[in-house]
Amino acid sequence: MRASKGDRLVQHGRVVGQQDQVTEVVEVLGTEGSPPYRVRFEDGHEAIMSPGPDCQVKHGKEQHK
User: Rounded to two decimals, what is the model's pTM?
Assistant: First the structure.
């Protein structure tokens, strides 16, 4: 997985009725775009995240699709 500052991480819900969680990458802490990432959630709080296989990267140009 590779991400850059400004990309969005979409963590897909694991159970029926659970919505996807979208975060914005504010800092890449790994080398060459790899995890971990400092992310900002929609409510404004930030955390360090190492996304799992249920997560998808939406790069800047893909976010408008």
Answer: 0.82
